[in-house]
Amino acid sequence: MIEINQDAFEKELASHENLVLDFYSTECPPCEALAPKFDSLAGLYGQDIRFVKIFRQQNRELAERLGVKSSPTLLFFKNREQVGDVLTGGIRRSEIMRNLDAMIDDHRVKEIRHSVKPVVTDTEVIVLGAGPGGLAAAIYLAQAKVDTILVDPLLPGGQVSTTHQVSNYPGFVDPLPGFMLAHHMAEQAKVAGAKMKVAVEINKVDLEKKEILIDGYETIRAKKILISTGASPRYLEIEGEREFHGKGISYCATCDAKYYHDKDVVIIGGGNTAVEESEFISKFASKITMIQQLPHLTANRSAQERAMADPKISMLFSHEPRGFYQKGDKMVVRVENLENGETNDILTDGVFVFVGMNPNLDLIDGPLEMDQWGYLKVDQDMRTNIPGVFAAGDVVSKQIRQITTAVSDGTIASIVITRELQ
């Protein structure tokens, strides 16, 4: 693999039947996550495919001509023509291999796949999940000289990365974009000495053996595992929801209600979270419309009574959202009346969705003790019921889930783990 500039691109393209080009930037966490994968795949596929990289900021003309707008971006070329997918952001090894395989014949693909040798990496602690809880734990562990590897199927930051602004995290006078807070945490963990394997595929987690298989070939073995995989908002899975997540649609009142001072908002949901959060949002918004699919709220009685008595809050029962759209700087919520099937649009400044959360435990097997909602039970030291396995952050059974509470959990777990390892 070599580095080129835009002047050498056409020559490289003409000289090689198959070529993969990596547009990278400096101080780019996704680029750093991609680099070892790109290097190792160059070793596997290098006889058949030319691997080259190019610094995007110093080669803007070529980047613009090829439609490259972010780093990293991988482009694949066969016989001078661009083929396959355009891969950007947190690029996984399997995504790259799928595109590389399509460029060569099946026989060579089998040979290359057969040549991949299993790798075993030993460490003291695996931190599974690189959100605030996992990053805080990694900082403490690494500073205590505990060999620590952070593993995450995405990039560091968790939900914080998609939060528009964070203004209630101690130490920052001015609101900070969520992705920057995540970046600072991740960089601090790296400087402390924590190793990161992010944007990887987690194939298997064996909590009893303290082993994790990633990318289909690397087994990481540890003495302790900290589960900090977080929780994800339960999505409605309707048009526009993913597209406008963080751009008009929020899942956290504490995070975003303050941005709707004297504005109209729509709340989706009628359970405890939706009704209780409506009280908080009412401190800022001038008008709240709650959309509930049932003909009544399902929150506890006292919360219902407070919401019903709030002059800012109106209820739209027996309705369901069918799509989210933007109109200028406003959001449009398309709703269906479940009693007669009619649809209409509601114009609003923002939308809050509170239809529940799901703990991120799909990749983890094992006899873990959970509460009735599927969150992990832990003791005061963040130990689970499996010896040597700890948990921290939003994946844990508790009442309050915030960045600060996740960091607190990670801190406690890391100090206890360090003491046990000593």
Quick tags:
Glutaredoxin; 5-stranded parallel beta sheet; alpha/beta; FAD/NAD(P)-binding domain; 29% helix; 422 residues; 3 domains; 11 helices
What does this structure look like?
By secondary structure, the protein is of the alpha/beta class. The protein folds into 3 domains: 114 residues, Glutaredoxin (3-Layer(aba) Sandwich), CATH 3.40.30; 178 residues, FAD/NAD(P)-binding domain; 105 residues, 3-Layer(bba) Sandwich (FAD/NAD(P)-binding domain). The protein contains 11 helices and 26 strands. β19, α10 and β20 form a beta-alpha-beta unit. α2 runs parallel beside α4, α6 packs parallel to α7 and α9 runs parallel beside α10. It is globular.
Helix content: 25-40%
End-to-end C-alpha gap: 43 Å
Q: So what's the overall shape? A: globular
CATH topology of the largest domain: FAD/NAD(P)-binding domain
Number of helical segments with 4 or more residues: 11
Q: Count up the domains.
A: 3
Strand order of the largest sheet: 1-3-2-4-5
The amount of beta strand, in percent, is: 25-35%
CATH architecture of the largest domain: 3-Layer(bba) Sandwich
Helix-and-strand structural type: alpha/beta
How many β-strands, per DSSP? 26
Gyration radius, rounded: 24 Å
Q: Could you give me the name of the CATH homologous superfamily of the largest domain?
A: FAD/NAD(P)-binding domain
Low-confidence stretches: none
CATH level 1 class label of the largest domain: Alpha Beta
